[in-house]
Amino acid sequence: MKADKNTVSFTLNGELKTFATEPDEKLLTLLRREGYRGTKYGCGQGTCGACTMILDGRAVYACLLYAKQAEGRSVRTIESAGTFEEPVEFQKELIAAGAVQCGYCIPGMVMSATALMETETVFEDEIVREYMDGNLCRCTGYEKIWIALRKVLDRREAADKTGRNSPAKGAK
Amino acid sequence: MKLCEFIRPASLSEARAVLSELGPKGMALAGGTALHFMQTKTPVAAVDITRLGLSYIRQEGDFFAIGATTPLSDIQRHRGHGWAMHEIARNISTHQIRNVSTIGGNICRVFPWADLPVVLLAMNARMVIYTGSEKEEEVAADDYFAAQPAKRFHGGNILTAVKVPVLKARQGFGSVKASRNAAAFSLVTVAALLELKDGKIKTARVSAGSAIPFPHRLPSVETALIGREAVSAVFKEAAAKSGADANWCAREGMSEDYTRQLAEVSLADALEKAAAYANGRTE
Asked: Are residues A98 and A51 in the same domain?
């Protein structure tokens, strides 16, 4: 049994970190308190996807995890993706497609898409829908988000077919 | 549910000892997605059982053994000859929840709208429970779901695995979940396991959940199927018998009559799927 009740240690965006916490604290609350505010608080009940982050390679809702559940695991937040100056490919396409209105859902969308691109090699629509079905957007009607994502995915599939290394595999 | 403590036991026996000592103050935690919504008067101590090697899917003789803390997304992605659990797993909640929510968590405390109890009833699954002794207890679905299973775990016992039969030739499974949108809880959820012989139905297990207080089998529907031809007209006729076993409730803006019709259509669809599976459909 873990002796230390009041801390949690996990790899956050590649760096091993230890945080003070309480048994009842949600991972989302901890992350936002510690300054990782790209992960949004939306519904707080595992419906909207604004708090999506990646836990050991899988997209999860930070609002439905106790911080202690992350002990010893790898946590990646939107801060591990692009920056304002250097957005990742999907973020660039979102901007180009005019897919961002209020923007609140976008960090979650990017994290779900990241999990998709890192896990799958074939991006049939049905697979893409499955990975993205836990992210709601109340502004755009999804069309432009879908167009932006499809561009990135089509490019990757084409790159794989021509035998070149997919540029973003494992990269930021 | 408010947590006052978060305990990570090193072994199954330690987990059981801790839960047994805590009594009602303790709660086994797997994915934990339901814990956030449960109301208790006093805070509970969560006992994390996700790191005890209980996440796996493997074939053991005539069964697929699914570890209790296996997330739904693993069940959804698994494929194998005689395997039929992926379809329902895909239709539960969202991608992010499926990555966390476990098969055990879905059936240790049964919520009325839960889909897996219905599926496991139709499948004649077996629940494996660790009671402290070396030989684990195995409980058939009919017994396990006869009442709220949560009671079984009050003494610290832990569900370790769910065994679903490997479907044989001429056996087929189908399930239908009717919901307002893909991520919503089911309005009606039904499942059917059929065994065909020379185009006729030899055996049938049919079950339902949601829109009734607790999931259960539909013996009148089963009786109406056995010995008959596996064709749409028979499925519809059998589905119409569900009222003898289930009082479909009005809920979420649906009248009782609407729920009944939805249930009957869903049952006929599930039977069609099961028959198609038995006749060689693979996906």
From this structure: no
Is the domain defined by B3-48 classed in CATH 3.40.50.2000?
no
Instruction: Tell if the CB–CB gap between A1 and B100 is shorter than 8 Å.
Output: no
Which structure tokens are listed for A10? 């996990």
Structure tokens at A69: 């559940």
pTM: 0.94
Give contacts of A2 with chain B, Cβ < 8 Å: 6-8
In a domain, residue A71? The reply is yes
In a domain, A147, yes or no: yes
* CA B122 – CA B167 distance, rounded (Å): 12
Per-residue pLDDT of chain A (172 residues; tens, 9 = 90+): 444 679 999 999 999 999 999 999 999 999 999 999 999 999 999 999 999 999 999 999 999 999 999 999 999 999 999 999 999 999 999 999 999 999 999 999 999 999 999 999 999 999 999 999 999 999 988 999 999 999 999 999 999 888 655 455 444 4
Looking at A50, A78, A106, the residue that finishes a domain is A78
Q: Among A2, A55, A134, whose Cβ lies nearest the Cβ of B183? A: A134
- The residues that bridge with B7 in the sheet, in sequence order, are B47
The answer to whether A10 faces chain B, any CB pair under 8 Å, is no
Q: Do A64 and B99 touch (CB under 8 A)?
A: no
Residues of chain B positioned with their CB less than 8 A from the CB of A134: 93-97, 183
Provide ipTM, 2 decimals.
0.93
| Distances in whole angstroms, Cα of residue B109 to Cα of each of B112, B148, B159 | 10, 7, 11
- The domain defined by B171-278 folds into Enolase-like; domain 1 (3.30.390)
Q: Which residue of A has its CA nearest to B32?
A: A65
